[in-house]
Amino acid sequence: xxxxxxxxxxxxxxxxxxxxxxxxxxxxxxxxxxxxxxxxxxxxxxxxxxxxxxxxxxxxxxxxxxxxxxxxxxxxxxxxxxxxxxxxxxxxxxxxxxxxxxxxxxxxxxxxxxxxxxxxxxxxxxxxxxxxxxxxxxxxxxxxxxxxxxxxxxxxxxxxxxxxxxxxxxxxxx
Length: 174
What we know:
By secondary structure, the chain is mainly alpha-helical. 55% of the residues lie in helices and 5% in strands. The protein has a single domain, classed as dinb family like domain (Four Helix Bundle (Hemerythrin (Met), subunit A)), CATH 1.20.120.450. It has a two-stranded antiparallel sheet with strand order 1-2. The model has no long low-confidence stretch (mean pLDDT 95).
């Protein structure tokens, strides 16, 4: 598929609004419920997304543009968000995410990425050779994956309540 930076940017711009709509008026119980040991709640997924807005996407985009694949970019700690105590409220996380995303989209615009630049090589610390285009596409898909995860975590709280309809609700069976 030919990467369309405009379409990717549109999804990146849309994510904060989707998250506000999904999470803003939820109870603490809904926001803090997870799928069992070793899984994340909706609020933890959001905290992870906020954290990666600071330490991942634009940092790595700039790294690839400047260093290409001469050396790997820094690994990220995907669970670094757990170090913030006390954990911020979901409203605070939503505000942070929206602000950081806006800043990152502005940085993306300032980078003036061309179609040719999407092929710039980079070096992931664990995956090896990647391209700038793959990184940018991953940023968008990361959003979509975590939106799906949040929806699944919220839905699974009603597994027993739906009774026999569970059979028809695929989100409850994943």
